[in-house]
Design goal:
Elements: E1 47-48, H1 72-84, H2 90-93, E2 96-98, H3 133-140, E3 144-151, E4 154-164, E5 168-171, H4 173-176, E6 184-188, E7 194-203, E8 208-212, E9 234-239, E10 247-264, E11 267-276, E12 288-290, E13 296-304, E14 320-324, H5 325-338, E15 340-345, E16 348-351, E17 359-364, H6 369-373, E18 380-384, E19 387-388, H7 392-399, E20 407-414, E21 417-424, E22 426-431
Antiparallel strand pairs: 1-2, 1-13, 2-10, 3-4, 3-6, 4-5, 5-8, 6-7, 7-8, 9-10, 9-12, 10-11, 11-14, 12-13, 13-14, 15-22, 16-17, 17-18, 18-19, 18-20, 20-21
């Protein structure tokens, strides 16, 4: 597999891999305030993603429509467990976000595929446009599921939503991954019904997975156009934080094109994220982020949180991140059709020690997209399709906001001169 993930400094620190290893050890805490992090410095604090394990003894989903709360003391206890020992499952609970970069060097890329169009929006008829959040939730809630994960006696929880009436469900890779080696996945609907699910395919680069259950004529979430999202728009999140299924929170879109990296258990995702202040907590992973008319505009995937400690809980501080639905839809459709999916690449290895602005190319993949476009080792890429990229992480995130086969403009500096070339993105297959 080939992609544009730059090499990583193997030394510990917030810019290196920080998800817990298999077996459930806690993720490494963020360095205390005032103490500089290990080099290279992280631009953002460490982030912890959702999908925290449900502690032993916590109520499981019932087979009846009525849901029971856990009670205030149980919720506080769970929050403490999340903050102190986030991690029965490395992929579910220990998902960490920071400025880390992966270690896979570039290799020969696949030939570019045909350019793709932006996905069609699932329009909502005028007579079905909700007049309030309550009406929206009433229409969308039947399409959202909570997901229980079990493997070797350990448990976790996450969220997802139905994208096809014959039983296809979209969620996060870090929700599904713990069950990929012999574990089980059970989805629970808002009406109390449940079904066993199988993994159709996963893409760790985008932190997405598609599940399949036996079903027909299931209610389907309507997908919107994340390219039309504007800062300040209403945002509504639905999921199962801390196992509390059917939880609804609202806020606004706080920012767009936020470069976020997320990783755990050796897998790293680069997200061109939609940022929201809608409350999102462990267990919301894979659930939908909705716009004002109830269309899905993102897949909730990560949160920024204060460093877990014995004096504070890890949870929502109003900084949540979602994978734009335009990218998620393409990945999901490819997985459903073929069982795998493609990740766009330019065919280079980046020098992560370079700190003078931009991304310096250390190696060019022979015959790859960058080679074909005339890029060379030593070139410093400063922008992609007009979007400034100040470092290698922002460049990779910008690349992954497009699809293989699309043509993008790459701006770079060579010998003190700024140049621009057109580059056709290649494809790296993700098989899960």
């Amino acid at each position: 597999m080939s992609d544009d993930r730059p090499p990583i400094d193997p030394s510990p620190g917030p810019s290196g891999p920080s998800g817990p290893p298999p077996g459930g050890s806690s993720p490494r805490p963020v360095p205390p305030q005032g103490q500089p992090p290990a080099q290279p410095p992280a631009r953002y604090p460490d982030f912890v993603a959702y999908g925290a394990p449900k502690p032993a003894g916590a109520p499981q989903h019932a087979g009846a429509p009525a849901r029971r709360g856990l009670g205030v003391f149980a919720v506080i206890a769970i929050a403490t467990v999340v903050s102190l020992v986030v991690g029965m499952f490395a992929g579910v609970a220990g998902y960490v976000i920071g400025r880390a970069v992966d270690s896979t060097p570039s290799a020969t890329v696949a030939a570019p595929i045909s350019a793709v169009d932006r996905p069609e929006v699932d329009l909502i008829p005028p007579d079905e446009i909700p007049g309030s959040i309550a009406e929206m939730v009433d229409a969308v809630l039947p399409t959202v599921v909570s997901i229980a994960i079990e493997n070797r006696g350990e448990q976790g929880s996450g969220s997802g939503f139905v994208i096809r009436p014959d039983g296809y469900i979209l969620t996060n890779n870090h929700v599904a991954a713990p069950a990929a080696d012999g574990g089980s996945l059970t989805v629970f609907f808002e009406n109390g019904e449940s079904a066993e699910a199988e993994i159709v395919g996963r893409n760790s680069a985008y932190d997405l997975a598609v599940l399949k259950i036996d079903g027909q004529d299931l209610p389907v979430a309507r997908l919107g156009d994340s390219a039309q999202v504007t800062v300040g728009d209403l945002a509504v999140a639905i999921g199962a934080p801390l196992g509390l299924d059917g939880t609804v929170t609202s806020g606004i879109i706080s920012s767009l094109d936020r470069a976020v990296t997320a990783g755990g258990s050796g897998e790293m995702a680069y997200i061109n994220a939609i940022q929201t202040d809608a409350a999102i907590n462990p267990g919301n992973s894979g659930g939908p982020l909705l716009n004002s008319v109830g269309q899905v505009i993102g897949v909730n995937s990560a949160i920024a949180t204060l460093a877990p400690s014995f004096n504070g809980d890890a949870g929502s501080i109003g900084l949540g991140f979602a994978i734009p639905i335009n990218s998620a839809r393409r990945i999901a459709e490819e997985i459903i059709e073929t069982g795998d999916s493609s990740t766009p690449i330019i065919g280079v290895t980046l020098d992560t020690t370079f700190t003078d602005g931009g991304s310096r190319i250390s190696e060019i993949t022979p015959g790859g997209p960058a080679d074909a476009a005339g890029l060379r080792s030593g070139d410093v890429i400063t922008a992609l399709q007009g979007r400034d990229t100040s470092d290698s992480t922002e460049l990779v995130v910008a690349i992954r906001s497009f699809a293989p086969g699309e043509t993008v403009q790459v701006t770079f500096v060579r010998g003190g001169q700024t140049r621009t070339v057109n580059l056709v993105l290649g494809a790296s297959e993700e098989i899960g």
